[in-house]
Amino acid sequence: MAESVTMKANRSVPSATVIPVLIYPDVRAAVAWLAAAFGFVEGVRTGEGHRAQFQVDDGAVIVGDVHGDRRAPLPDGASHSMMVRVEDIDAHCAHAREHGARIVTEPTDFEYGERQYTATDLAGRRWTFSETLADRAPEDWGGESITP
Questions:
Q1: 67-74: which pairs have CB atoms within 8 A and are 24 or more residues apart?
Q2: C-beta separation of 51 from 26 below 8 A
Q3: What is the DSSP letter of 7?
Q4: What architecture (CATH level 2) is domain 21-140?
């Protein structure tokens, strides 16, 4: 069982406990696009095209370059999806679309209390954005709570 641990602070690394590192063929283009389309703000840059860090509320994302065995996703496939919680999903979706995001699924309300849409970015990576509409117990919609 995982215990809560207070991490040492380091201004060179995001403070989030889980930090996805996403590989893009052009780090600077990815940073510009993610900032314009999704509103992310770059916090740390390592070299001109090697790496960049985004703080996204209490989470973080690192953008890395293609190098060695690191590869960007293949077109028209999804090996994973990133989920980011936002306020005002409809405005967020419209903004992303205006900046070139391909909307895979339009904003949709789900029985588990979330309104979500999915978009692909300039490298074809899938991002799901989610706005909470209501606090719903998993048992209310067919899920199951495992922990008390």
A1: 70/23, 71/23, 72/23, 72/24, 72/25, 72/123, 72/124, 72/125, 73/123, 73/124, 73/125, 74/124
A2: no
A3: P
A4: Roll (3.10)
Residues 6+ apart with CB under 8 A from 126: 78, 80, 81, 82, 104, 118, 119, 120
pTM beyond 0.85: no
pLDDT digits (tens, 9 = 90+) for 9-66: 777 778 887 789 999 999 999 999 999 999 999 999 988 889 999 988 888 999 999 9
DSSP-derived secondary structure letter, 138: G
Q: What is the pLDDT of residue 1?
A: 43
Nearest to 13 by CA among 43, 34, 35: 43
- Model confidence at 79, pLDDT cuts 50, 70, 90, reads low
Are 120 and 127 a contacting pair, CB within 8 Å? yes
User: Where in the chain are the domains?
Assistant: 21-140
